[in-house]
Amino acid sequence: MTALSPMQLGILILALFVLLGVFIYLARKHSDKDLAAFTAQKDEPDTVDGFVEAHGEPEAVVVLDATRSNELNYVVLVYENELIVNGEPIERGKITNVTFNNANNPYVNSDYQLVLTTTIPDKPTVKAPVGSDSHWASEVTTQLAEYI
Fold this sequence. Notes:
By secondary structure, the chain is of the alpha+beta class. The chain has a domain at about 50-145. Helices cover about 40% and strands about 25% of the residues. A hairpin with a 2-residue loop joins β3 (about 80-85) and β4 (about 90).
């Protein structure tokens, strides 16, 4: 087996850098297309203000986490025939129970979730984060129970 000459070694290293550059270019080009396709598919706004502007004023707004109250995942918008939970509509008549649970594990502080039990086959339970205060989770559950 013969060793590579310095010239051959230099060409090999240059070829590897060129291949690496082409690979990085193609990876970025592909990810930009995926991002553009994802944002083009997203029709619904992701903030409460945008959603209300697109769908009208709700009857009530139940805040799940006051620090993130302009994000759709942290409020429940109450409309005449439906609730908007995590940005998704759920018919009021299909909700059978409202409760909360402690979803913590040994590695994080206690996190509570609002749990809606439904008669919808695809989503028998819908969960939304409420925060780390059990009293607040209980209060949110009580507020939502009035609209079901």
